Amino acid sequence: MTVQHVKTTRLEMAYECAGPEGGPPLVLLHGWPDDVRTWDRVAPVLHAAGYRTYAPYLRGFGPTRFLDTTTTHTGPLPEHILDVLAFADALGVARLTVIGHDWGAWVAYMLAAAHRERIQRIVAISVGYQPGDQPTPPNQQAQAYWYQWLLGTGRGEERVRSEADEFTLHLWKTWSPPGWFTEAEFQETAESFKNPDWADVTLDLYRERWERKGRPQLKIEVPTCVIHGAEDGASLVSSSEGKEEWFSSRYERHVLPGIGHFSPRESPAEVARLVLAFLDKTR
Known about the structure:
By secondary structure, the chain is α/β, with parallel strands linked by helices. Helix content is about 35%, strand content about 20%. The chain has a single domain, classed as Alpha/Beta hydrolase fold, catalytic domain (Rossmann fold), CATH 3.40.50. Strands 1, 2, 3, 4, 5, 6, 7, 8 and 9 form a 9-stranded mixed β-sheet that branches. The longest helix is centred in the first third of the chain and has 15 residues, at about 75-90.
């Protein structure tokens, strides 16, 4: 797909768009450390079903750039939420169906919670909803979040700035069962980590996640589908269990046996099937 660009007040956002002209729009949000290539084998199935997809590179990734080059560029989660709303405004899309993986799932949840007038429904992949301030996770999940604790230190900052490829490749290898990607696939996506703001955005989001206080505990009132790999080595599958009380509309959760953190890449046919079934039920 051809990379296109649209300007918001803060960014020149790069994105890929495909599918039938006039088809119902779906916004596909990638995670970290990843980029829009995560949707390569999911999006064509959505297109065949009549949907049009818009997959932006998030701030700090790939060809997306800040318009103001004179300031330090940050990337806390609330800014990503505003980015997506501004992206939709620039495209003329009034109400959104958002499908997000990893960081994209966090953004989808918060869009649905805080901007439900703009959101029709969401699909959140590999992340459970965590309203309010972030509690200290259970020990097993805390161990899986070692990279987030590392990024809160000066040595972690040095690692992500100077050894981005080695660091993120290790995460790809350990967050899912082996054999799910090739070296060429990783290198293609790792080009997105060469964005000059990638390290700053990465560090800022993870640090803000654990340091920020006073987040409201909001229920989600739009239809929601959660898809989680049973072998996820980053966000453990237990982290998305027992969340039903936070959803007042349709809520469904699917666990994929034998699949790790990168389920859109590892099991694209099943992810696409679940997404289409959910979209059909919530049409």
